[in-house]
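call fold(seq) -> tokens
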Amino acid sequence: MSAIVLLVLGLAGMAAGYFIYSRFIAARIYRLDPDFKTPAHEFEDGVDFVPTNRYVLWGHHFTSVAGAAPIVGPAIAVIWGWLPAFLWVVLGTVFFAGVHDSGAIWASVRNKARSVGALTGDVVGARARSIFMIVIFLVLLMVNAVFAVVIAGLMMNFSSAVVPVWGAILVALIIGQLIYRRVLSLGMVSLLGVIALYALIFIGPSVPIQMPAEVGALSGNAVWILILFAYAAIASMLPVWVLLQPRDYINGLQLFIGLIVLYGAIVLLNPSVVAPMINGDLPANTPSMLPLLFVTIACGAISGFHGLVSSGTTSKQLNKETDARFVGYFGAVGEGMLALAAILAATAGFASFADWQAVYTAFGAGGVNAFVEGGAYMIHNGLGLPEATAATMLTVMAALFAGTTMDTGLRLQRYIFQEWGEIYGIQWMNKNVPATLLAVGSCLLLAFGAGGADGTGGMIIWPLFGTTNQLLAGLTLLVVTVMLVRLRRPMWYTLAPLCFLLVMTIAALLIQLRTFFNDGNYFLLFLDIVVLIAAILVAMECASALKRSRAEVARQE
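ret:
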């Protein structure tokens, strides 16, 4: 199988989704109104509520939701074969992710930019809100703690990426000033920012920075984790236009250039997909493809974390309600394109099937390293770029996405603590600094409390990320579906994905429950039971809320 065939089919499917299906959803289901006064204008404060150019906002939204997950998940899932991963990424992007992300923005904008967690109390009920807030907190805890480990690992393993990763922050700070001081046009700023970023990528291999393996009582990896959380804490409290927006925007442009380079290498090299279509010779202890495929590939098909970004930061910056289609749905398409690139790199970026099989020796193998090494192989052989430079470019791409997700994730975690302060009348928790310290403290407690001096504690609960994240996506779709029912609009376009996610999530949790029990991993067993109970309660709340809403509509008719 030629990788070009998969590339063309995947991109064509996602393009049809955006130009046809998303237009129908925006006009007929959500009925986006260009004259609706968005919260960005109603509550404009120059810090969190800032009306934003839709291209800049798309950059923030896309790179915040992308992270490393749309690379890691698909690059692991191809162990079952390339066809299941390919189908779920394309179909999931079109019929699940785009509808979910744009729907979460719409629901939040129509309710004063409240987060989907807080909104659940009004739309569904107080019990559902309590469940939602617990699930949200767990997801953010996992994302922030684990992405810090991922970025730290990349900088320890690829020292050539350190200068471009941290240099990108300085580039973003300058871009933010140029855009909002209106010194230069957006096009000129974009061009200069991309040139600066790629100059850093080419400089990186010549100026490698290697953290010592041990720094006092801590490992080099742990030192990077502490530095990353210190940075993320500061970044999460800055006005969004200073760093968050410009960093995410320039990273979004960098991704598209990176994808063009990677896709161009595929077209010129025309590599064969060496991985099997369906893998009939799975390594020992590889779990069943159904239902675990649908929780292994979350980001890139559908992800509950996207709903947090959509209703947490994006809805506060939306200039026009109609921008939700471009920012939300096309943001999901961008992530689908990244997941497609990960699939191609992890299946066609090897010289032979034996080379591929040597990497995929167990479930969980592959991941970011397979993406970087496979992608660098294709770029080097297809475009002639030095393999070290290609590897640096792809490493920086992964690290920057994980970093922007961390920035946004910590800001969202701060919002959660502030919302808890508002709900329970704890005044000091409403303030930025205490809420940020609580967010960072909880992440560090997990990282170093469970992981010791290495700071890798987040990896302990990571096996539950996929199921918890998909449960969160189901909760978001539940809120959107109930709103549609109350507005007497068609609900099946959100209800069908909701039901599918709940079934697959509960099934995956049951399988993991048995695995954790057999392995004697009682900590994860306990957490799995907690999430499983939450999933069952969500299903019950779903049925109850829809029944009540339909009854209310019937009485009014």
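The radius of gyration is 22 Å.
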